[in-house]
Amino acid sequence: MLFHSILFYVFAAIMFGAALGVVFSRNPVHSVMLLVLTFFNAAVLWLMAEAEFLAIVLVLVYVGAVMVLFLFVVMMLDVNVEAAKRGLTRYAPFGIAIALLMVVELMQLIWLRSQVGDTVGGFVPNPEGYSNTKALGSVLYTEHVYAFEIAAVILLLAIIAAITLTMRKRPGLKVQNIAKQVGVRAKDRIRVVKMDAEKKS
Amino acid sequence: MNLMDFLAAAPEMTLLGLICVVMIADLFIEDERRVHTFWLSMISLAITAAVLQATSPDTRVVIFDGSYVSDSLSQVLKLGAVLFVALAFLYARDYLRANDLNKGEFYLLGLFGLLGMMIMMSANSLLTMYLGLETLSLSLYALVAFDRNNVTSAESAMKFFVLGAIASGALLYGISWIYGVTGSIQFHEIYAAISADPSLNNLPLWFGLAFLIVGIAFKFGGVPFHMWLPDVYQGARTPVTLYLASAPKLAALALTLRILVDGLGGLHETWGTMIMVVAVLSLLVGNLVAIAQTNIKRMLGYSTIGHVGFILLAIFCGTAEGNAAALFYTLTYVVAAAGAFGVIVLMSRSGYDVELLTDFNGLNARSPWFALMMMFLMFSMAGVPPFIGFFAKLNVISAVLAAGFPGLAVLMVLVTVIGAFYYLKVIWFMYFEEAEDKAVLQASTDTRLVLSLNSVAVLALGIVPGWLLALCIDVLS
Amino acid sequence: MADFFAGLVPGFVWDIWNSLPPLVQYLTVTVWKILFLTIGVILIVAFSTYFERKVIGSMQARVGPNRVGPLGLLQPFADVIKLLIKEVIVPSQSSKFLFVVAPLLSLTPALATWAVIPLNNWYVIADINAGLLYVLALTSVGVYGVILAGWATNSKYALLGAMRSAAQIVAYEIAMGFALVGVLMASGSLNLGAIVEAQSGGFSQWFLLPLLPLFVVYWISGVAETNRAPFDVAEGESEIVAGFHVEYSGVAFAVFFLAEYANMVLISTLTAIFFLGGWASPFEGWTFLNDISWLAWLTVGGLPWLFAKMCLFMYTFFWLRATFPRYRYDQIMRLGWKVFIPVTIVWIAVEGAMAWFHIGPWSGLSA
User: Fold this and answer.
1) For residue range B71-99, what is the model confidence (pLDDT) as tens digits?
2) Pairwise CB contact (< 8 Å): C140 & A33
3) How many angstroms separate the CA of residue C170 from the nearest CA in chain A?
4) Which residue from C129, C148, C159 is facing A131, i.e. has the nearest CB?
5) Which residues of C touch A72 (CB under 8 A)?
6) For residue A3, what is the domain's CATH number?
7) What ipTM was reported for this prediction?
8) A184 within domain boundaries
9) How, if at all, do strands B68-70 and B61-63 pair?
10) Burial call B346-356: b when 16+ CB within 10 Å, e when fewer
11) Per the CB < 8 Å rule, is A131 touching C151?
């Protein structure tokens, strides 16, 4: 168990450091990369809690797709970080106060649960052969199937909304008709004319 | 659970299936014949309404492991929502065609919004409620930004989106607190948990509750979370404002009733105070600021805030009578709002949106019938007897009195008097000012007919309000 | 596996080994497995460059490398030494740390994915339940190397290459993921070993034919994910010089090169595992072969089969490169979003319907 604890603290420390780096880095691309590192470490922590499905999906979805697009956008935008950071020190006390408040509240909630006697007594490893992918799947498709389907509808709606707002037919835009290009035959383009040789004058 | 158990959710499933049909069909409809999408959408709405009627539950049915509830309240609200969405589509049709906005996505997003509302109305867990709310909100954001070449539309959509996202975040944060304390996200289980263990009724729960109230107040448009509402009402194109001002209010009512009454009914003492503060502020700010407005859409936006104050005060009572009054008020207010925005849509022509109060100058001379209709609607909103708005206000006031708050009742009477001023101002402009533009209003026969029915309804319902009130009391008992 | 080694070493070594604590045993075995695998992959990469040049040479009626060593077989080592002794030039306006880290970021996932790949019925480093997801997750991480290289270089060509690569990989990953959903449905497991087991029983049991559309989509998406011709717009020598690695030289370039080929080997192996039965023999279950003593080995599955299948796909990579001109960028996007994704979705639906009605090889699925 000691080995496990050491690993936990190491990864937690890296995650914490990376998370701080996200906020304090002067370069947005570095921030994004540090965020990727944070996600990775979070995934490792989940893995240690035997939530392998969530851990891998975190990497797959957030690191593999969302952050790539994020990076894409950040690289395209020429963000003036210095200007954006200027307000940081001014608002820092306020932000810290809110963060402390949230910590206190969470502590209180944890304390409350411990009072009720509903605490989780240590980490109980899953039995051999337990697959939490399967477990999650069976819950998602039975108990939470309604919410799951609504989430799918929201994604469909998001696609439609995004297309509504961005797709426009620009007048004068020249596009190829690929079917037409492929369907073209030599006789549509070239006319072979037979004619007699002309006499040299 | 066998397949027949899902039957209670048939309206939502039908609507989703029909949305997909409309979506695919719209791909193949050319711009000139976009009206086909409109008719397809209307047919979809009619089928949904028919399915709703056919699956009308005799008793409260809970399915999907407690995520979905079908009862008489959801039934009434859903039918109302379908009706008002149909009205919004009908009023919007000619406007969209005239203003080069004739895209099928308007109807599609409108239908998705309706689906979101129906999900909210049938939600039996905080998760479902939240997902329904997001479905609705996402459609509304896109609808407000629908005219993307219009700067004010884009600005108001941005404002709506950012503030809406924050409000959703607050709601979600509150939900997680409630879940953390009570250990459930299903309303009846939360209710049971709180009544079983009074020690749960403590600071962390109130903390979560406060966030829920913030979310609810935002979605309803209650002061001090109302900032988005006038801007969005003004910035969105008028048919969108019409959509926004009608059916979603029913969904917001469902959100409030389900969460606060079904789920957290045991905490009435705590949330009552918060709701009361929001309600009183809404009454004052909405009605006072509306006086100063010169833009009719903005004015109606502020008046909405005032009406929300009434609805929230009715819920504040915490009695069955109060809840029935809230339902009655919302239904009747939405009828009047749909009609009023319908008239504004009708008065707008190609390339010219009716925005200012002065645009109503001399409407009587131009189209006496529509001026009369608008007068009905304004009278109803102001609460003049015998229009339906009067009875709605009367119900709320009597519910508040019955709950023992005479001071609030007096306040409501006062703001009603203040509110009458700006509603009457519209009537003054219509009847006693000279019009610059003498053109008669143009409208297709079906729009004309439905708008007239809509406006006459506020009078007719006012003359025989009994059955609707009885229905509301029956639904919430 | 233990029996296999027990015969090889003297008894006292075996006794010492057995006296070690299990954690140490486990770590030692794993480290050796990793070492062998890594060296194997790197050797395959080295010789696949030779293989590539020979294949393309023969297709273009040339000889290909034949000077260094017998038949030119030492050519890869000559190339490696050349790259190692070249100077690494870091552009002065670049983001230096990321510039150096980027090649490593693209190599690491390519090698780390091998952890879950079963080479035969016992050689797998980490036999985890969610192996297929792990593969998907790590292959999607590989794009960071390309993007960061493009950005850190501070050159417009590099950035263009990076952007193209990012959009391309995100587009094709979806089709790849959906294709794997089909495999997952057919095998009923996320574990790669179990996926191979599900295809045991000769090539009629392979997923190749029942999942033919998914196989095609997966393979082509794999080619696109590795940025190989005809999807090599991220490099696009004729348009954007060399794309994301335009400023890389020496070892840094060698690492990119290694990563690209390691990814090719990986995709070839994965395709073999998902659709061609992995290490299983195509003649499994042909009992009459067992009676012919000199053909009996054909029915036994193992690493050679996997290697042969991988080589087949590597050959296809080179074949594609020698045959097709580069896709235009918008055509790549169209192919990914408008062709592959719908095809995979439709085939998943077809597969679901077939499983439901007990048609085809998945009759046991719906249970």
Assistant:
1) 889 999 999 999 999 999 998 888 888 88
2) no
3) 6
4) C129
5) 147, 163, 166-167
6) 1.20.120
7) 0.90
8) no
9) antiparallel
10) bbbbeeebbbb
11) no
